[in-house]
Q: What sequence folds into this?
């Protein structure tokens, strides 16, 4: 009985996966994002302004290569630090 329940659960799981995969593949070509439904599409995309760069800098102070009383603009706590080459 236990083996039969395991096989049935596996079959149900496979059927659910196949249905989900088929639904996912069927919806790929559809554009259901709302917005401009049936309206004209914009012909020109706006350019990225110079005041808003397309990248960010993540500065993480207090790494193991720093020291609490070290000068942040001229660090000398660890002369073999990899961050000194950046």
A:
């Amino acid at each position: 009985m236990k083996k039969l329940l395991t096989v049935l659960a596996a079959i149900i799981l496979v059927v659910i996966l196949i249905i989900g995969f088929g639904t996912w593949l069927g919806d790929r070509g559809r554009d259901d994002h709302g917005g401009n439904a049936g309206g004209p599409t914009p012909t020109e995309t706006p350019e990225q302004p110079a005041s808003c760069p397309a990248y960010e800098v993540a500065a993480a102070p207090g790494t193991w290569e720093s020291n609490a009383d070290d000068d942040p603009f001229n660090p000398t706590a660890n002369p073999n630090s990899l961050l000194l080459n950046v």
